[in-house]
Amino acid sequence: MSGIVKWGGQAVIYVGMALWLGYFANMPVYTHLDPKLAVIKLSVVHSAQRKYECRKRTQEELEAMNPNMRKPLDCPRERLPIHLELLLDGVVVYDEMLQPAGLSRGSQARAYKRLPTTAGQHEIVVRMVDSARTEGYDYSRAAQIILSPGENFVIDFRADSGGFEFIGLAVDYLPES
After folding, report:
1. pLDDT in tens, 85-112
2. Are 88 and 155 in contact (CB under 8 A)?
3. Which of 101, 109, 97 has the alpha carbon at shortest distance from 44?
4. Which of 98, 174, 166 is nearest to 130 (CA)?
5. Dihedral of the CA atoms 17, 21, 22, 25 (nearest 10)?
6. Is residue 102 within 8 Å of residue 114, measured between CB atoms?
7. Do 42 and 113 touch, CB atoms closer than 8 A?
8. Whole-model pTM above 0.85?
9. CA-based angle 19:21:24, to the nearest 5?
């Protein structure tokens, strides 16, 4: 009899734990995003231009250095900050000055922004300055987009492909101004 009670007690405990775990695996209901909204994701990883130009070392400087350190050019690693701007329907929704990473500020600047927005038609403009220029932008892209509810629209930056890429279902690129 004690074997039946022991096995029965274990079964009750295991069934109770399974029910408890099953309930909390599905409840409370969590909605990641309102079903009427879409998400625009901005992702940028980019190295701006160098802050200082490379300079040629003089013969005296080279002779003062160890033989294994004698590089004719001195190129400081520090890079300029990146100015990144995102406009949605003519309103600035993201405007940041991104600092380069690294101890000597010689690495890439990074940005990731998730912007929930209403579904429907929008005009989107993204622009970036990665040089020392004071007027205009080095990279710019504009498009008319149609966002579906629940859609993830991605704005990615790839310098080797010419700049910003829009990854979404309905994109109509606008002429560059």
Report:
1. 999 999 999 999 999 988 888 888 999 9
2. no
3. 109
4. 98
5. 180
6. no
7. yes
8. no
9. 105
d(CA 101, CA 45): 11
Tokens found for residue 34:
């309102």
CATH C-level class of 31-51+79-173: mainly beta
User: Is-contact 100 79, C-beta < 8 A?
Assistant: yes
Domain residue limits, the chain? 1-30, 31-51+79-173
Distance between CA atoms of residues 53 and 48, nearest Å: 13
Instruction: Say if residue 157 is exposed, middle or buried (CB neighbours under 10 Å; 0-12, 13-18, 19+).
Output: buried
Q: Where are the alpha helices (DSSP H) in the chain?
A: 2-26, 59-64
Enumerate the β-bridge partners of residue 36. Answer: none
The DSSP code sequence of 20-58 is: HHHHHHH-S---SS-TTEEEEEEEEEE---BSS--EEPP
Token pair 């600035």: residue? 92
